Fold these 2 entries.
Entry 1:
Amino acid sequence: MRAVVALLLLLFSCRLGWGAIVRGVQPELAAKYEPNADKKWSCLDGSKTIDFDRVNDLYCDCPDGSDEPGTPACSNGLFYCRNRGHEAKVLSTAFVDDGVCDCCDGTDELEGCKNTCIERNAAVREGLKQKVEDYKRALAKRAEYAAGAAEERAQMQSRLGAVDGDIATAEQEVERLAGEKANLQDSAESRKAARVEARREEAAKRKAEAAARKAEQDAKAAEIEAAAAAAGAGADAADAGATEPGPEEGGEGAADAVAEGQQGSHPHQW
Ligand SMILES: [Ca+2]
Ligand SMILES: [Ca+2]
């Protein structure tokens, strides 16, 4: 089997010629897969120089696997699929000639693979198209959300402005009520002071009236006492006249004395 594959590779190389792209080589490395004048070639890591016909001879010569980009001989080699019409691909050389079509252009297998890159690309394009549509819908939804958010933000700002206005009005009302309270307190204190003064004046008035009444009562009492004293003195005098006998008859003499006394107490009429 190995001999058959080597023969096919040889035929493949001969068909392309040495100036052609070596199987499995990445385009940016193609210029490095040219033999020198002695038909020698150096591994890409520079570790060895081998005959150029030992490239892709199904035997791993270079430690970096660079001499076998188109065979599974090296475990660390890399194979490049051009996949024209679709996306290029780099895969491990372990997938080369393993009987499974890994590249859509079928170049990882010497035979048995159809080129499906156009169909696969169409499917990919359809998928991408669907993704683009999904992305557009997402953008539209995002724009819708953004517009809604902007509107909501404007409404919130409006409500915030209204609340600020309410707060300012409430603060003014509080300030007004504080002033009104101060005025009411001043008025209440004034009325209280007036009531106290009125009560004080009323008390003084009552005190003066009581003093006047007392003075009047004292005067009346003195007058009564004086009258009583005077009446007592008169009675004593009368008693004294009644007990002393006259020169002729005691009774008549006394009566006369009283009469005389009474007469003597009044001014003469003539
Ligand atoms: Ca080799
Ligand atoms: Ca394969």
Entry 2:
Amino acid sequence: MGVRFPPCPFLKMRMMPNRWSSEQNKIVEDLFKQGKSFEEISIAVNNHIKKLDYDIFFERTPRSVVFKCMNLGLISSKELEDWDKIRKVKLSKYRFKDRDKVKKNVLERDNNSCVFCGSKEKLEFAHIIPFRMTKKNMELEGITLCYEHHRRYDEGDNELTKFIFGKMNLYYPEYSEFYKLEIVSCESHKEHAKIIQSPSSR
Ligand SMILES: [Zn+2]
């Protein structure tokens, strides 16, 4: 959804109806027949919407255009499914975005060795914060560990976790503004250290 300017309480807001107008449908149909991509079609529809005199309007996403094409009978439901599948693959590529560059920088920063034992064998790039939580590769969240210590870190080894937290604080003086070491005790009264993002930095 896009808002053209901040709502004024004294003016009546003109809000775009969420249903597709016949003009919007026609743009989709014409451009589809010209072989334009769904992304290109969504841009064209949005440009049309922005020219209309609405204070509050909804932008059409490429997926909503694909869905529209199916409703207009331009593509089959199978084609919609295929498009969704391809999109999923594209999204999963974010996992690899910047990964090689970040990995190289982290390795250099850590003197090409496991920060804990100094080993230069079987080195791995470890995500300090699990990747599934951050969805990004960055130097601040990566560290070089050997195979053995990577496993131990992922299993929640206390000593190793505290060591890594100390190490990151040495590298980056402002580290503890963004991350903190959380100590949790488990059922067997053993304390566990875990590095988490500070809630304020999210
Ligand atoms: Zn090691």
